[in-house]
Amino acid sequence: MDAGAPAHPPVRPLAGPGPAAPAGWRAEAWAILRLAWPLALTNLSQHVLAVTDALILGRLSTEALAAATLGANLYWAVMAAPLGTALAATPMLAQARGTGQRPGGAGRGWVRQMRRDARSALWASLALLLPALLVLWFAEPLLLRLGQEPGLASLAGTYVRALMWGLLPFCGFIVLRGFLAAMERPGPALWIALAGILVNAGLGWLLVFGAGDWPGLGILGAGLASTLVNAAMLLGLLGLIARDRQLGRFRLLGRFWRPDPARLREVLRIGLPISGSMLLEIGVFSAAALAMGWFGAVAVAAHAVALQVAATTFMVPMGIGQAATARVGLCIGAGAAGAARRAGWVAIALGAGFMAAMALLLLALAGPIARGFLGAGDPAATEAAALGAVLLTVAGVFQLADGVQAVAAGALRGLKHTRVPMLLAGLGYWGLGMPVGLLLAARLGLGPVGLWIGLAAGLACVALLMLRRWRRLSEASLDRTADARA
Length: 486
Known about the structure:
Blueprint: H1 25-60, H2 62-78, H3 80-87, H4 89-99, H5 110-137, H6 139-145, H7 150-163, H8 167-182, H9 187-209, H10 219-243, H11 261-293, H12 297-333, H13 337-371, H14 381-414, H15 419-443, H16 447-485
Helix pairs in contact: 1-2, 1-9, 1-10, 1-12, 1-13, 2-7, 2-11, 2-12, 3-5, 3-8, 3-11, 4-5, 4-8, 4-12, 5-8, 5-11, 6-7, 7-10, 8-10, 9-10, 11-12, 11-15, 11-16, 12-13, 12-14, 13-14, 13-16, 14-16, 15-16
């Protein structure tokens, strides 16, 4: 046992209907919502950091916004590996805590296992960060080899070299957020993330545009502000957890220098397919951004606007999916397969309902939303806003599919099932979405709009495949539980 750590902190009952006492559909919906809304707001607040950069740089110049979009797409594609292992912490921690909800389960070492799982996720992320940083350091020559304009590639490289140092604290924040989700205490991560928005907005504006006689750092300042805010958010969350009477007793970083090979292998088994799925999804949008570069800076800027808005609405079903991971994991750990199945379907329904509403909103307000991202004094802004409005209309069409696939993937992660979803994502995004998009854009002359239509087709395919997989596995899990009781 780790030195200085208590054997077993008091077992806190699960918020809402616990898996040991399965609840009805309505009660499960409230349990999901109580856990999902802070997670969704945390996601939104983290995404607003990127949106803030886009809003600030859009007022600096269309070229700065386009360059930051290219750099950010490369950044997110490269960070998929360490981020996936960080996300693996949530289902592992949830199932470990769920064992403490079984009769007599509190004395089976679940506290120590949660501590080991969190540390192992941090170790795995740290190991995968090193090659990611190496790639990002050479962002400019990489973008040049991918056919981007030299001016945009140079600005993007400058942005990424400042942004990349925030990777480590960001992954640490994600692991700690997974711990809080498993404990059904997502509030601290939310408050820290909300504070990060305010700090990033003020710091970003100051570092980009300067103050008084100081001219500012331009696009470099935006990347530097994001890095400093990520570091501050990690330190703030560590402080809040340490000060909490219950959470602090887990001592998650106790003996951090001692890797646990068995748990590390489990993190990689679960996390690497998550990384693969993320890379496939991020990669297809990054490839679309690079393809937009073939049509010029206006097309890239319009793509940036539409992508930022679509990604913003996506943060809510992502939060619902994270809640599904925690709830399904808790129920499976407690041996309540029926409750796990119900939790997954309730979460999918909630995600679908929200995204249907967002689809109607985007279809109605595509033009005003696009114009809000671009400075009126930029000659290219009018053209970029017009194209951005068209792309937002396409984004409105695929909102429902995007939400369903995100929540279904989250429910599957609660079962620690990640390898097949990765393959399904590859089939939908790269087997259908990207080829169709390139065909429509280049061969049939639809340009940027054709690319986005292809992305919509790929998302619809993935959503259907994920739903089918969840239905089969949740029913199989229920059958195994019934056989075990027979």
